[in-house]
Structure formats: C-alpha cells, structure tokens
Amino acid sequence: MFERFTAAARAVVGGAVEHADRTGSDCVGEPELLLALLDQRDSPAAAALDRLGAPRPAVVRDLAADRRRGGLSVADTVALAALGIDVDAVVARVEETHGAGALAGGGRRAGRGKRVRRTFAPEGKAVLGRALRIAVGRGDRRLGDEHLLLALTAGSGPAGVVLAGHGVTYDAVARVLAERSARRAS
C-alpha cells in the first residue's frame, strides 16, 4: 500500500509514529496523524491548511486538551456539563490521584534507548483506508498528504472535530485543493 504514497504522505506516516513515540502512545491514531500533517511545510496539505488559516499552535493545543480529557471533545464536555458533570473537575481529581496526564492514554514505554514498534490504532487504519478511497475517487494515481488531510476531515474522530473547530472541514479543504489544481492547470 505504501508504494502508492507520495514522499509527503510517507513523511506524515513516519512523523505520526514519531509523535506516538514522544507521547508514549501505544498506537498511531488520528491525533498523531494530524500532528504529523501540521509538521509539513511544502506540501499540498500544508498549503491547504495555510490557505484556510488553520492556526497550527491552536490546533496542537486543542489536540493536547482533548488527549488530557481522555479523548472527550469540547462538545462532549459541554454535553456532560448539561448533565451536571464537570469534566475539568473529574480530570483534575484523576490527575491528583494518578498523576498528570493519567487520562491521556500514554502507553508502556520501552526501556531506556529501546524503540517500540508502533502499530496503527483502528482509527488510524481507517484514516489510511479513507485516504486511499478518496485518492482513487478523485482519479489520483498516488496518495498524497492532501488525501490524508481530506480523510481526517471526513471522519468524526478527534482530529476531524478539532479541525472543524478551526474551520478546516472536508468541503473547505476540497475547495482549496480544487482551486490549487485549477491554478496549476492554467
């Protein structure tokens, strides 16, 4: 499958594994893929994010907050607040007892200097599969980082929710990519 990936898409996948290593996550999921996409500079996805005015530091901050809350989105937090549950208080209490980032899902770390082979979480695999379907559906022969960005925005997972909160939706990304393609064709 990876032979169809552009260099930028391969860099995103490799970067996602590195992000999982840094955070201690057992698996590579949507947040790691999005963080790796945000690291890109001279690529179609980076250009789309720049064109849409996606504030990279704010997106990273929102992903970290989502992770700290154990994957609960802002919308989940608001819904629970309507039921009288203060998620921030629950998180603070858990961290008080179990340490900072206890709900973040940090995985087991290898011994000093050892690397752990990171696998893709089902949500990460779903993004890759969706990206491949998007590339084929658009008639593209190669899977680029723009297809990964479209796949993230097409899903309802943490990355898609955070991106949508910053105006980066599937339709907005598709429009920007179409404009870019039209400019290149003329």
From TrEMBL:
Domain called Clp R: residue spans: 2-185
SUPFAM superfamilies: Double Clp-N motif
Molecular-function GO term, any one: peptidase activity
Annotated keywords: Hydrolase, Protease, Repeat
Biological process per Gene Ontology, one example term: proteolysis
Protein name (Swiss-Prot/TrEMBL): Clp protease N-terminal domain-containing protein
Organism: Streptomyces yunnanensis
